[in-house]
Amino acid sequence: MRKAGGRTRVGSGFLIAILMVFAVPLTGRGEPRAGRRDLPRVEKIRVADLKEILRKDSGKVVLVNAWATWCKPCQDEIPGLLKLRKAFRGKPFRLIFLSADDADDLEKKVRPALKKFKVDFPSYLMNDTSDQAFISGMSSEWNGALPTSFLYDRSGKLKATLVGERTYNQFEDAVTKLLEK
After folding, report:
1. In terms of DSSP H, where are the helices of 57-145?
2. What mean pLDDT do residues 9-34 have?
3. How many CA atoms lie less than 13 Å away from 137 in the CB half-sphere?
4. Per the omega criterion (within 30 degrees of 0), is the bond before 73 cis?
5. Could you tell me what percent of the chain has a pLDDT over 90?
6. CATH of the domain at 157
7. Which of 11, 60, 89, 126 is most deeply buried (CB count within 10 A of its CB)?
8. How much is the pTM?
9. Whole-angstrom Cα distance, residue 60 to residue 154?
């Protein structure tokens, strides 16, 4: 600030700084908007990205559950899968939710659905060049039906493609067998 004729003048740099502070919320950058902070983290991925995640999870049994917000059996399966995750907490096990919803539905459908189920861990949304590319890349045994779960052993090898709705006990048995190996 400078004094000029008894008045204080504000420098242009100071004005720009003030404008930027107030402009950041208007651009959507910076802190997430209220209501978004508590939504689950969902990342768009391709099959190659998922394979890299599985490689990094070497030493763990991994269950990848392909689901969608419009799939009633998928919705019915989620509480049992969350119970499974809790039951195997502290063991070398990881649950991954993989949404088959359209990428355009991420904010309006996928995140709210995961929030409804109180999913508190990172999840993913299929985003390959085509649905068929993702389906083929996941398993030759998979025709794209939902729900489908892919069970990987500790070495990252696909051990089972479980097409259709499963119960908690079925998942628990399958995971336990791989953990005991």
Report:
1. 72-87, 111-116, 131-138
2. 42
3. 17
4. no
5. 75
6. 3.40.30.10
7. 126
8. 0.79
9. 5
